[in-house]
Amino acid sequence: MSPRRLGLIAGGGEVPGNVADAAVAAGMEVFVLAFEETTDPALLARFPHRFIRFDKVGGTLEALKANDCDSVCMVGKVARPDFSKLRPDMAGIGLLPKVLAAARKGDDALLQVLVDFFDKKGFRVMGAHEIAGDVLAGAGPMGRVAPGEQDLADIEKGMAVVDALGALDVGQGAVVRDGLVLAVEAAEGTDRMLERCGGLGEGAGGVLVKLTKPGQDHRVDLPTIGVETVARAAAAGLNGIAVEAGAAMVIDRVATLARADAEGLFITGVARAGRT
Amino acid sequence: MSPRRLGLIAGGGEVPGNVADAAVAAGMEVFVLAFEETTDPALLARFPHRFIRFDKVGGTLEALKANDCDSVCMVGKVARPDFSKLRPDMAGIGLLPKVLAAARKGDDALLQVLVDFFDKKGFRVMGAHEIAGDVLAGAGPMGRVAPGEQDLADIEKGMAVVDALGALDVGQGAVVRDGLVLAVEAAEGTDRMLERCGGLGEGAGGVLVKLTKPGQDHRVDLPTIGVETVARAAAAGLNGIAVEAGAAMVIDRVATLARADAEGLFITGVARAGRT
Domains in chain B, ordered, with CATH? Predict the structure, then answer.
């Protein structure tokens, strides 16, 4: 049975809005669980919602049940909470030891605890790509520009770097130019990583590579690019962007590819060894 | 026989000056090969010198021979050249294919080509630590502050990250706070990495970890910290700095440790598994 009412745990950025629209288009109702100063106000204006906090786990479950949600989807950027300042409710206290242990391993481990928790409570945990399937990157060049020989070598190097980092649950992105790793993404995110590439190294060219972490649950935190990513990649002088085919999200695809074409950048989907 | 006249290939920062002083104290004469707009003018004022360019390999050898150097030491930061703009001399043309191939692998591979080249030409290639031995980090806390339990866990995670990156010849540093990797160093260098940590994550604490790359020739590009590193680590809210014992350089040691003590930061030397 397909889910009837989706509890959208919505972080920042435009992805939650895209997923909400796709859910509605697929015949679902949407109830938004939002974060203060994070979730897009436009989304809150369009859907019934309630603000939640990381530590009020019982309150969150109650809100999901009271609003008749049978599934949840976590999507959009959320800042890590300051664990020293949490004042959890009873359910939160029960989950806290697991959360703290996972938090020391990385973001991916932390999100997995939440996925498992909702799973156990009987909710169907859905990935954004299950709802808005057309946002996933295809294989090969998606716009009019294709990567050149040096770009392909840079993509390969970037994939090795992101794989090594991802295995340690660090980040999902890296920038490589002419074999030199200009930047590696950790907690700062892709936009800030691209910002600092402008002044690094000599010459232009290079690629941004974004992949999921090895073993990552694809229901949370898929690598994402959009118009803004393309604009920043262009400002950094890059030749293009390589994302994991079937696993990275290209939001606002038409506008994103149009911007890439206009900037002369490629966006290409790559498959990793050992995955299809 | 100990070297008589050292050709100091001097990049930016204060390390070349420290090495020059240590060489003089050890009874060596110093001739500086300098880079335009990179090498410290104070160093140039104190020692005979000549400006060199990456592509003028023959000219560099000539300068070393004309000035009777029997050894060379490469130390200090140098920006990667824009390989598309090089106009090499004859010796440079001979070396170029190797340099280009190595450059695609990373900085470490690139420097190794230069080490091997000077080696073959009969120069003794010396590491900064062989000349200024007292700059190397010891094992354990070097100042008055020692790392706590969470710091030790963060150091361990940081070491795993830097090891994984170093194996790909990416960088030598990372910042970890409460298990979360805040930042990973690539081409931007330690100072800029620390700068961006201030605004990342919640709360304070965390460690900067700096290690050599696995398999790195210790005669070039040793990880280095100094007063500036401590100041930036403090500004980022970190608890301390962990460097590879016997392989990382603590420049201006007295002032650096004093600053760390004053800021309440630890500086500790760590040994990696498989190394002593």
Answer: 5-131 (3.40.50.20), 136-270 (3.40.140.80)
